[in-house]
Write a structure and sequence with these properties.
Blueprint lengths: L17 H6 L9 H21 L35 H14 L3 H11 L6 H13 L8 H10 L4 H16 L3 H7 L7 H13 L6 H7 L4 H12 L5 H13 L3 H11 L2 H12 L1 H6 L8 H14 L4 H12 L11 H17 L5 H8 L6 H12 L6 H9 L3 H4 L2 H13 L3 H11 L5 H9 L15 H9 L1 H12 L2 H11 L5 H13 L3 H8 L8 H4 L7 H8 L4 H11 L20 H11 L12 H18 L4 H10 L2 H8 L5 E2 H6 L4 H22 L5 H5 L1 E2 L11
Antiparallel strand pairs: 1-2
Helix pairs in contact: 2-3, 3-4, 3-5, 4-5, 5-7, 6-7, 7-8, 7-9, 8-9, 9-11, 12-13, 14-16, 16-18, 17-18, 18-19, 18-20, 20-21, 21-23, 23-24, 24-25, 26-29, 27-28, 29-30, 32-33, 32-35, 33-39, 34-35, 35-36, 36-37, 36-39
């Protein structure tokens, strides 16, 4: 019979509506909530009148996605943890204020701000109100004095920096560039803030360059405003915009692509652009003359590239017939345009694991590519029966410097150097990444003859260090937010507080998170250290052996299971993915039901999927089924667990020859699954080293992948 493990302090067992969450916030808060409810009801008509009296033309600030709200669980005092949360009227006001914010009851929120202020989280209601007033200023204008007072009064706090960024963007939108410049810089910045700052500098006499704009650009209001101005001023022109248009088309970001097209084409050509994007073949076959101008040639180039999205084989045949050396239009297009088209066909082929991809990349040559396409150019070469290491190295050398510095491309270039006899160069490259605690760091270490071990544990965190962590205001606020179940607010608060911390301070913060059972913060915080490494934090193994017991019960490798959970959920018991997977082992509802039926779990219900024992029993059994179905390969089974069991069968069948596991992992066509598999396998090696005390080999764990021809599976 399945036993129910009581959830940890910040692990939720059920999802509740905002009102239910507020009602169940804490037994100590309940006596205050009836009065707050009456107050909310009394003020609600005022909000209704406000909404009907004026039409808001400014974009509303979007409230944070509300995580499920558990009952506030006041933990017993734990060594290194914080004292129990005091249940006060001020805390009740904070909870009610968040409810009012989510309901857009702004007058209620305003009345609750002073009531919430005495609480350590009291700045949150004040921030929510000020953010609203930024975008929907009262008749008297934006509350500049209140904004300045909040920022100066909370100068080191996350919310003060966030409000600075909010204010900066609001000022930029209204054309108040002097205020933008006064507010800059923002510590926790983003592309839109950086675009607004650059735009403000440009508009106040410090001229921006096209290179500066391109370096900070990401699609969004402030960045488009910057581009609007620079295009109007003649700073951004065809030369700068054409590559960005093509990059957007490659990524199928059609809305962004059209914005770039608006900058580049006249209205008549823009209408043509819309037609060819809708049906490129129909448009191409109606062209009665060869393209002559720059605009026409660009439109034809885009249409040819878009053909591959429908059928790359048809596109290739058409390109060779009409635009090849013997085609009617062979001399009307620049070779560079046709090379880009060929590179687009190669990318589509590579993502479909089509054997023609490598040949098409060779036809395209070493042209400018997006980082994404440049990576697939190398991956297509790695899939060949006989790898052309010279081409691999040349292709990596064509990448931007920042991409070349990634451990994956350092490793594969070093492999090329070794294969071509440059052993010393290869050894130097391997050594440059061998101390990185990741997939390619481990592989590089093995190339140098070193097996994988766990680094020595640093000196324990002292009482003084943990005391300082417990006293840190940002960490204290984050923990209180975690206790409320407000993960969307807690995580950025925690992360912001870590800025500038030393290794010892980071490890102390991780210990504080461990004492509070906030396991994902233990891992992510300790992962930031640069000179001292505590693997009991980085590769935490919580739940007192229960995961190991579940794995051992069906002869499954506990290190692999822990490695998978670390990647899946970071040990958050109620984690829920964007596709609906739940719990420690991220089970989809239909999969959980299917496995429960297979193993005879008669008491399974959909609501029990986040229960520790239920989730780990179903998860380990499903993982074991996938492992057996994929010939005992942990790497293939990891891919199947993430992407569905049929996909690794299909991917394996596309090879014509056996390949080493690292090549299979690197050439998985799904970005998420490729990263997932590499992380799970790397994690598993470290967990195995920790559990056994013995050195490990990632290469041995990856193995070799041997194609078996056409494959199928009955596992969902």
């Amino acid at each position: 019979m399945t036993q129910t493990l009581q959830p940890g302090r910040y692990q939720k067992t059920a999802r509740k509506s905002g009102s239910a969450a507020a009602t169940e916030a804490a037994p100590g808060l309940r006596r205050w909530l009836p009065l707050l409810a009456l107050f909310t009801a009394a003020c609600a008509p005022v909000d209704a009148q406000q909404r009907s009296a004026s039409v808001n033309t400014q974009p509303q600030p979007q409230p944070a996605v509300q995580a499920a709200q558990p009952a506030i669980s006041v933990p017993p005092a734990v060594l290194a943890g914080l004292p129990p949360t005091s249940q006060t009227p001020a805390l009740a006001a904070v909870v009610a204020a968040r409810e009012a914010m989510n309901r857009k009851q702004w007058s209620v929120l305003g009345a609750l701000v002073p009531q919430a202020k005495p609480d350590p989280l009291g700045m949150y209601p004040e921030y929510w109100l000020l953010r609203y007033q930024l975008w929907t200023p009262p008749a008297t204008g934006r509350p500049t004095a209140d904004l300045q007072k909040f920022i100066s009064g909370n100068s080191d706090a996350y919310l003060a920096d966030r409000l600075r960024g909010d204010w900066l963007l609001a000022a930029a939108r209204s054309g108040d560039f002097e205020t933008v410049r006064k507010l800059a810089p923002v510590k926790n910045s983003n592309a839109q803030i950086e675009c607004a700052i650059l735009d403000a500098k440009h508009m106040t006499g410090q001229r921006a360059t096209a290179a500066q704009a391109a370096a900070v650009f990401a699609p969004g209001g402030a960045c488009w405003a910057l581009y609007d101005q620079l295009v109007a001023d003649g700073i951004m022109g065809w030369e700068q915009l054409e590559p960005q248009l093509r990059d957007a088309i490659e990524a199928n970001k059609t809305a962004d692509a059209r914005k770039f097209a608006q900058y580049m084409f006249e209205p008549g050509d823009l209408k043509t652009y819309d037609q060819l994007m809708k049906d490129p073949m129909k448009w191409l076959t109606r062209q009665s003359r060869q393209p002559v101008g720059r605009n026409e040639k660009e439109l034809v180039t885009i249409a040819l590239a878009r053909l591959a999205r429908s059928d790359v084989s048809v596109a290739d045949s058409y390109l060779r017939r009409e635009w090849g050396k013997s085609g009617d239009w062979s001399k009307s297009m620049a070779k560079s345009n046709l090379a880009w088209v060929r590179g687009q066909y190669a990318l589509v082929a590579a993502l479909n694991l089509d054997s023609r991809a490598d040949d098409w990349y060779h036809e395209a040559g070493h042209i400018r590519m997006t980082e994404y396409n440049a990576a697939w150019k190398v991956r297509a070469a790695l899939r060949q029966p006989k790898i052309d290491w010279k081409w691999v190295m040349e292709s990596i050398d064509q990448m931007p410097a920042s991409q070349q510095a990634d451990s994956s491309w350092i490793y594969w270039k070093a492999r090329g150097q070794a294969a071509r006899g440059n052993k010393e160069q290869a050894a130097t490259a391997y050594a440059s990444i061998a101390d990185r605690f990741d997939f390619y760091g481990q592989l590089a270490a093995e190339e140098l003859g070193r097996r994988i071990t766990v680094p020595p544990r640093p000196a324990p965190i002292s009482d003084q260090e943990i005391t300082e962590a417990r006293a840190n205001p940002g960490l204290r606020r984050a923990i209180q937010l975690f206790r409320l179940g407000w993960r969307a607010e807690a995580v950025p608060e925690w992360n912001f507080t870590l800025r500038g911390m030393s290794d010892r301070q980071l490890m102390a913060a991780a210990e504080l998170a461990r004492a509070e059972n906030i396991y994902d913060r233990v891992v992510n915080t300790s992962d930031r250290t640069e000179k001292e490494f505590d693997f009991s934090q980085r590769f935490i193994a919580p739940f007192e052996g229960r995961v190991t017991a579940k794995a051992n019960a069906i002869a499954l490798d506990p290190a692999w299971v822990y490695g998978l959970i670390r990647q899946e959920s970071r040990f958050i018991m109620d984690a829920r993915s964007h596709v609906g997977a739940s719990g420690l082992m991220q089970l989809m509802p239909a999969t959980a039901k299917w496995v429960a039926g297979k193993i005879g779990m008669s008491n399974f219900t959909p609501d029990s999927v986040n229960d520790f024992d239920t989730n780990t029993e179903l998860g380990t059994n499903y993982l074991n089924m996938v492992l057996r179905d994929l010939n005992g390969s942990q790497m293939l089974a990891s891919a199947g667990y993430n992407a569905g069991p049929r996909r690794p069968h299909n991917w394996r069948s596309t090879f014509t020859h056996p390949v080493e596991g690292a090549i299979f992992a690197e050439t998985i066509p799904f970005n998420e699954t490729r990263t997932y598999v590499k992380n799970v396998m790397s994690n598993s090696v470290y967990y195995a080293a920790m559990f056994t005390g013995q050195s490990q080999s990632l290469k041995e764990r990856l193995g070799n992948i041997v194609p078996l021809g056409a494959e199928s599976t009955s596992i969902p």
